[in-house]
Amino acid sequence: MDxxxxxxxxxxxxxxxxxxxxxxxxxxxxxxRAVAGTTPFTEPFQDLITRYAWGEIWTxxxxxxKTRSCMVLTALVAKGHWEELAMHVRAAxxxxxxxxxxxxxxxxxxxxxGVPAANKAxxxxxxxxxxxxxxSPH
Length: 138
Known about the structure:
By secondary structure, this protein is mainly alpha-helical. The chain has two domains: 60 residues, no CATH class; 77 residues, AhpD-like (Up-down Bundle), CATH 1.20.1290.10. The longest helix has 24 residues. The protein is globular and about 50 Å long. It starts with a helix and ends with a helix. This is 4-carboxymuconolactone decarboxylase. It holds the Pfam family CMD. GO terms for molecular function: peroxiredoxin activity.
């Protein structure tokens, strides 16, 4: 294979592995909605995040998924990415974090990212956790 063919095969493998991890972390329903909403305009971005965020970073062996979720939650609080926070609270639960552990992440974030940001994070997470509880079998 020449370099372009090798890169293409590697990109395809990263995309496939990224899609597997993305589905495991975010859930099939979320990923199916994202894929269904992909347009020619957004396709390069969807490919980028699938290959690099999910296929390169989330697949690395150095950190487990719980730790990665803690880091993502903190980063989203720090940057005020509230639309993404709800999705990643769901992902954190899927990755094994309890509501108490998520609260601890936000308490830590309050010190380093600011109390108003943590306050907003607690509000979003409380809503998401209640939704999850309402949909889980009792």
